[in-house]
Amino acid sequence: xxxxxxxxxxxxxxxxxxxxxxxxxxxxxxxxxxxxxxxxxxxxxxxxxxxxxxxxxxxxxxxxxxxxxxxxxxxxxxxxxxxxxxxxxxxxxxxxxxxxxxxxxxxxxxxxxxxxxxxxxxxxxxxxxxxxxxxxxxxxxxxxxxxxxxxxxxxxxxxxxxxxxxxxxxxxxxxxxxxxxxxxxxxxxxxxxxxxxxxxxxxxxxxxxxxxxxx
Length: 215
Description:
The protein is an alpha/beta fold. The chain is 42% helix and 15% strand. It is built from ten helices and six strands; from the N terminus they run H-H-E-E-E-E-H-H-H-E-H-E-H-H-H-H. Strands 1, 2, 3, 4, 5 and 6 form a six-stranded mixed β-sheet that branches. Helix 8 crosses helix 9. It is globular, with a radius of gyration of 17 Å. The two termini are 17 Å apart.
């Protein structure tokens, strides 16, 4: 099913698909991942826009901050962040000084080559990044995904502690694991926060391969 989509890919997405992705049986002890967070003006990729992307590589059980990246994305003509600025804290002036979407995606895809993607509530990252790749590179983004939100929900159910919505927020999960409090809704900080949660989840859980944690 994905083969036809990938054959339509061009540019940076085609280059991304030319690099083999991790297999389901890959050991978590050596698995390369990229923790990714996107900040947006809303929840619907068809109606709202990405305003920033942050990413942090993980090599097995080690976070590699030397490969971390962050971009602010220049909006379309006439774009304004509106009330969403209250959440992501980016102003119209900062957006105006950002880079184009195609360049932002290219940088992300280069960092993601050969890695699985890690996110917290990954549906947002998957939806927005796939829509943007479809628009700019002719095909959606297909990549193995690990979701710390889903991992935490699965863990809580196994422990007969059935979570409410707030229990699965990234800040609340970090609090339960004794991780330091970070500011929320800054893409690079949230990517790092997600990476740290993942390492705790893996080290505390009985999981060994990508298949064990993949969505």
